[in-house]
Amino acid sequence: MNPAPVFTFTCPVKTNSGNKALEHLPVELAGLNAGNPLIITSRKAVGQKAIQTLLDAFGDSGMTLGLFDGVTTTANPDLIEHLKSIYLEKKYDAIIALGGYGVVDAAKVLNLAVSLKTADAHKLSPATPIRGHLSPLVVVPTAAASGLETSKFAHFNHMIYSSEYLAPNLVVMDPRLTRGADGKTIAATGLAALGRAVEAQISADHNPFRDAYSFAAIRFIKENLPAAVKKPSDKKASLAVLNAASMSGCAASDTKSARLHKLGQVFYDIQHIPPGVIMAMCLPHVLGDDLKEGACDLAALLHPLVGDDEFARTPAAKRAETALAVLGRFLSDLYGTLGKDLPRNLKEACVPGYRMEDILDGLGQDEEGRYLKTVVERITG
Amino acid sequence: MSIVKDIQSGRKPLKRAYVGIFLWFTGRAIQATARVDQEVKKEFDNLPDDFTFSLGCLPDGPCMVIGKEKGKVKYLGSNPGKRHVHVRLAIKSVDAAFLILSFQEGTAVATTRNRLITDGEVPYALAVIRILDIVEVYLLPKIIASLAVKRYPKGWSIGRKLGGRIGVYTRTLLGI
């Protein structure tokens, strides 16, 4: 493999994964010079049991923890301003985000507000300059994760913040929290990870560091997502899916072209459909177009999807087509397992017509908007 | 009323007690084994005269301190006092200590799972691990000791196994 002559890669995220990984949190926080953390979560999204598991992990640490468990999908700058005041007043020194999606995005923006000590959190915007490290941020994802938790992005209040300093310092994945409530949830998490990892893997500007993350993420998903969907309580499989989601977030931070990511994110922002569901619908169309255009290295997908032997047996000229066929079968099997729980098109996903206008408007603002709209037309159903 | 609740982290008295008792017993057993077993004695002989090591759990969990005094190995309780500790083995939490000391995870597995912090010279730390392995073999039945050590030793004579075990247990219980 020949890397591009010049490339950069940043992944500041430390990962702790596995049995009782949560119990290392007090020591890890001490390593980050923190001993008075504020936990941000959504009781409705993660459940009381997950919160209690996290609190129990601090047993015997002697720490006092702050807990805010009311993050909702409509979290706004008012909430961030309120939390910022409390954070500074009570002298918290780290943020722990328990959950995924909006919880982590809110935690990232709160971290920005408390670290920059802005006079008013309402004035924060993607244009706000971030010139140095922020306060320690720890992410503890649950089964319902977007995969962007470990990335440098924060989608908040219809804006996208982007800075390598927004990425968490530490992500802790513990099988007690990564077990899925149902196959649908873990499938959405895994498919979002797959979509982003695929885009990173086939990206024209090869980067060996990013490839390492995306390669492992694709292989983890291929080998573990079917088992996790069939049996969401399978600790090993669901932990592997969350690991893949974490890796895909690191890879996505350094991926320039991300059509699937954009499509998934627009539908999530406007209709709150998990990005993985939309990315799975769009994946065959977008990759099919990439194959025709010949702009992306689709052949690079085959190795992580089928393993060493099958990859070596396949002639180089047929690797791209074979990879697409393997992905198609993989998705088809998932649709077969989940039935109506995993919609195959927008009609099955019950996206109302009046929302479609907003969605198309949202896509229209992107530089690839025209193309992305054609993909949406093909998945309408 | 604030939207942020302050919660004091709980306690884990049962696990803490188990770990405390285990470390207390193991500490005395190390002292006893150093007098009974030639291999352990040799390991300690190769260490500095004032050598001291501790094994405990963070942040302020139970701990055992073993040190050499005038050529003899002694269990020094849970506090090293003013002694210089050459090797400090710290388990990251009382839960991790419970996993290791209840033999759900062997020492080697726990190390690979990043549950232990070693502070000190690596050769000294390896000597301590070898000593701990031999002590565990004396203290535990084979089926449990196999879980705790990386490789259960082969080729021990019946005399060493049986006589040594009797000697170690007697000295441990009597504290001599």
- Name the average pLDDT of chain A: 91
Number of helices of chain B: 7
Quaternary form: heterodimer
> Can you tell me the residue ranges of chain B where pLDDT is under 50 for at least 5 consecutive residues?
none
Structural class of chain A: alpha/beta
Helix-strand pattern of chain A: EHEHHEHEHEEEEHHHHHHHHHHH
What level of helicity do the residues of chain A show?
40-55%
Question: Which tags fit this structure?
Answer:
heterodimer; A: 381 residues; alpha/beta; Rossmann fold; Dehydroquinate synthase-like, alpha domain; 2 domains; two-stranded antiparallel ribbon; 16 helices; 8 strands; globular; B: 176 residues; alpha+beta; Nonspecific Lipid-transfer Protein, Chain A; 7 helices; 6 strands; 50% helix
Question: What would a concise description of this structure say?
Answer:
By secondary structure, chain A is α/β, with parallel strands linked by helices. Chain A has helices at residues 25-31, 43-46, 48-56, 77-89, 102-116, 175-178, 183-202, 208-230, 235-253, 259-271, 275-293, 302-306, 308-313, 319-338, 353-364, 369-378, and strands spanning 14-17, 37-41, 64-68, 94-98, 137-140, 153-156, 159-162, 170-173. The longest helix of chain A has 23 residues, at 208-230.
Task: Please describe what this structure looks like.
The complex is a heterodimer of chains A (381) and B (176). Chain A is built from 16 helices and 8 strands. By secondary structure, chain A is of the alpha/beta class. The longest helix of chain A is centred in the middle third of the chain and has 23 residues, at 208-230. Chain A folds into 2 domains: 14-177, 3-Layer(aba) Sandwich (Rossmann fold); 182-378, Dehydroquinate synthase-like, alpha domain. Chain A has helices spanning 25-31, 43-46, 48-56, 77-89, 102-116, 175-178, 183-202, 208-230, 235-253, 259-271, 275-293, 302-306, 308-313, 319-338, 353-364, 369-378, and strands at 14-17, 37-41, 64-68, 94-98, 137-140, 153-156, 159-162, 170-173. Chain B is an alpha+beta fold and 176 residues long. In chain B, a hairpin with a 5-residue loop joins strand 2 and strand 3. Chain B contains 7 helices and 6 strands; from the N terminus they run βααββββααβααα. Chain B has a single domain, classed as Nonspecific Lipid-transfer Protein, Chain A (2-Layer Sandwich), CATH 3.30.1050.10. The longest helix of chain B is centred in the first third of the chain and has 24 residues, at 13-36. Chain B has a 5-stranded mixed β-sheet. Helix content of chain B is 50%, strand content 18%. At the A-B interface, helix 1, strand 3 and helix 4 of A face strand 1 and helix 3 of B. Strand 3 of chain A pairs antiparallel with strand 1 of chain B.
